[in-house]
Structures are given as C-alpha cells and as structure tokens.
Design brief:
Elements (H helix, E strand, L loop, with lengths): L27 H5 L2 H8 L4 E4 L3 E5 L2 H9 L4 E2 L27 H9 L5 H5 L2 H13 L6 E3 H6 L2 H10 L6 H15 L9 H22 L6 H12 L4 H13 L2 H16 L2 H9 L4 H11 L6 E5 L3 E3 L2 E3 L4 E4 L1 H4 L34 H18 L4 E2 L7 E3 L4 E3 L3 E3 L2
Parallel strand pairs: 2-8
Antiparallel strand pairs: 1-2, 3-5, 4-12, 5-8, 6-7, 9-12, 10-11
C-alpha cells in the first residue's frame, strides 16, 4: 500500500539531488510523494529554475522564516510576472491573502477579533453538534468516505455558522471554490481557460447580489459587520468588500477538508499512535498538530522579490516569484528531531503549516477546533475504525495544496 510521505523517506546518503532541479509543486509526481523532493531541496540553499518563469525555491526552515516574516523584501502582491498569471485571478479584488501592509493591516484588524482562539473555542458545542449530525448520517453503514462525509461538509457548516450563511447558498460557494482550485492546478505558464474566467464573472455577480440580499437581513455575525463597515463606516471599498466575503467564505474550506482526512489517515497508518490517542484523549491536540506538520494541506506559498535581494548566498532579482515550500520546512532535521517519524507527542512542534508572520493563517483556530472535535467524536463512536481493506490512497492538489481524493474507512 502507498503510505504517507515519511514512510517512503530515503536515508540521507540516498537523497536524489537531481530532484532539486525537477521540483514542480503542481506535478502529479510531487503530489504522489513529496518527501523525496523535500529532502533534495533541504540538502542545499535556495535553488532557481524555470517553473513558468525563473523561480526561486526556498525550503530550509530558517530561510522560510526569513522570507515569510519580511514583507518588505518579499511581497505577497503579484506584480503580474509572466508565467504566474493564474495566481493573479483576483488581482483587482483585494484580499487578506494577496495584499501587503498597510491594506493588509487594515483588513486583518477588522476581522481578527472574531478569529481569536478564545472566541473560536466558544463554538465547540456547536461544532460538536455538527460533527454528530454528519456521523449520524452514516449510522448503520459498515463503511464510509471521510472526504465526502466530513471533509467536504464540516468546514462549510462551520464557516456558514460563523458568517450566518444559509445552507441553500452552500452550492454556489462551493462552485467558486472549485473554480479557484482548478485555476490553481493549471500548469505554470498555461493560459486560464475562457470558461473559468466566465465562471468567475458569474460568481462575482452572484456574490454582489448575495451581499445586497444580506443587507436586508443584517445580524450580529461577522459578515454583517463587514457589510456595515462598507456601508456606514466607509472603511472598505466595494472591491475590498467582495474580497473579504470571498476570503472568509473560501479561505478555509478545501484546506480544512484535507486536514480532516489527513488526521484520520495518518493515525490509521500509524496504529501505535492511534492506540496512544485512544488510551489518552489528552493527546488529541498533539495528534492534530503532528498531522499538520507531517501532511500539510498547504505545502507551498508564493512571494515576489520586491527588489534585487539575496537569501543564503543566492541572488534573487526583483520581481522573481519565490516559492516558500512550507512542507519541506516541516521536514527540516535542523528544526525537527527525526522529522520522518509521525509522533503525536512531539514537543515542541513549531510547524509552518499555517504560515508565519503577518500572513499567519487567520483561520488556524477554527481549523484546529474542527480537527480536535472531529477526531474525538470519531474515536468515541467508532472503536473499530480502520481503513477499508481495498483502499489505496490517491492524491489531488494544486501548486499550493495537496489532499486525498477519498478516504474509505470501515467502522463495524
């Protein structure tokens, strides 16, 4: 059976250094088994190669920290570099994920209080009820697909709850998520198909209409507060309003879905660790964190050199895309002892799966809450949980993300 990345690690002496020059974060080979690429990239300083355009690839933990904390040298805003057009689909729609300070600072300050860990922890009873409802839907079944039952549904339910979005609007939101994911999976330099752009225009119109409908029924939720900030305070432009709606509704869906599946997959493929967490539920939080390190749903981010600069002795010309390979940093032996081991008691576990610095994922707290509650409820309900006998993992992903296509488990 194909297993999680670390089970296929080679010894340090067997690192295939040629993979440093073959790395393509959107390729099926990488998605099927990224760790040989991680090890090759970690074997030296940043490497430069053509991936649609000249690109600098950063992998070592300390180098990654340098890049993602320095928004002066390494901008998150795409200056429309040739070969990176597919990353710029929303260039005219400012979002938290695609703007530097001071715009980013203003936008983040507006929503950060609603995502504070203490605030999110207050949602635990509601999230537990959602998980229970989803698990009730498979009651009596001997087998089910975690991706479809939990991964695809729980994050949408949680963000719908936070933003007061009715379930009848979930389908349109998921359509936009699918389109943006398909664009992210395009090969470097490939043109964006016209049908994708047409879908984006249709969905842009849908969301402006959705915002207008919500104006007539404002409440105490975060989305209502954002609409009010545009209408009454003038602290958001029309495009910023749309960007905030998009990032809040889409930002944590597919990545949290992948995280949910990975948590169970990693434990089921490491029965000793599963036994530990079954005996001691206090280890649930550690299991979630170790799965995030070991199988990061977001393996790569992108920055752009704001001026001619240098990193670890490598010159980086102005405007050059910089791939920050967070997944590789999570396997850096200079930071993590025995990084190829899946150890739910690992401490400290300063993984990079939610990023770092000013762009640290604002949805980290709700994602972690969903992971903890999901794992606790699944283990409580299904003491005989195991992989389906004929299950073979298949991977899907984009330039930035990687996840399981399905995860069939037996529960009888």
């Amino acid at each position: 059976m194909s297993t999680s990345p670390s089970s296929e690690l080679q010894s340090a002496a067997d690192v295939d250094l040629s993979l440093r020059l073959k790395f393509d974060p959107g390729s099926p080979d990488f998605h099927n088994n990224p760790v040989p690429y991680y090890k090759a990239l970690l074997a030296g300083p940043p490497v430069q190669r053509e991936i649609g355009t000249l690109t600098t690839i950063v992998a070592r933990y300390d180098d990654l920290i340098t890049v993602i904390r320095d928004d002066q040298r390494f901008s998150i805003e795409n200056p429309v570099v040739a070969g990176t057009e597919r990353f710029n689909v929303f260039w005219d729609t400012p979002t938290l994920a695609h703007r530097d300070p001071p715009v980013h600072t203003r936008l983040r300050r507006m929503v950060a209080p609603s995502f504070a860990p203490r605030k999110i922890d207050e949602m635990e009873p509601a999230v537990r009820a959602m998980v229970g409802r989803l698990l009730d839907s498979v009651a009596g079944q001997a087998e089910f697909d975690v991706v479809k039952v939990l991964g695809e549904q729980l994050p949408m339910m949680v963000f719908g709850y936070m933003l007061n979005v009715p379930e009848e609007d979930f389908a349109s939101i998921r359509k936009l998520e699918n389109v943006t994911h398909q664009i992210g999976a395009l090969k470097p330099g490939a043109p964006i198909p016209v049908e994708f752009l047409n879908s984006l225009e249709e969905l842009r119109a849908f969301f402006f209409d959705y915002i207008d409908r919500r104006r007539a029924n404002l409440g105490n939720d975060l989305l209502s507060a954002i609409i009010t900030a545009h209408d009454e305070k003038g602290s958001l432009t029309r495009q910023e309003l749309l960007g905030m709606v998009w990032v809040l509704l889409l930002g944590g869906l597919s990545t949290t879905a992948d995280m949910i599946s990975y948590i169970l997959y990693d434990l089921l493929t490491h029965p000793d660790q599963l036994a530990l967490v079954r005996r001691d539920p206090e280890l649930i939080a550690g299991a979630v964190e170790e799965s995030l390190r070991y199988d990061p749903p977001v393996h790569t981010h992108i920055r752009f050199a704001a001026a001619d600069t240098e990193l670890a002795g490598v010159g980086i010309p102005r405007g050059t895309p910089v791939y920050v390979v967070l997944g590789a940093g999570n396997y850096d032996p200079a930071k993590f002892k025995d990084p190829e081991s899946f150890d739910i008691r690992r401490h400290p576990n300063d993984h990079l799966s939610f990023g770092e610095g000013i762009h640290f994922c604002i949805g980290a707290a709700p994602a972690r809450l969903q992971g903890r509650v999901m794992l606790g409820e699944v283990l409580r309900r299904f003491p005989r949980l195991r992989l389906a006998p004929d299950f073979r993992p298949r991977w899907a992903g984009s330039v930035f993300s990687r996840g399981l296509r399905e995860l069939r488990v037996c529960v009888d």
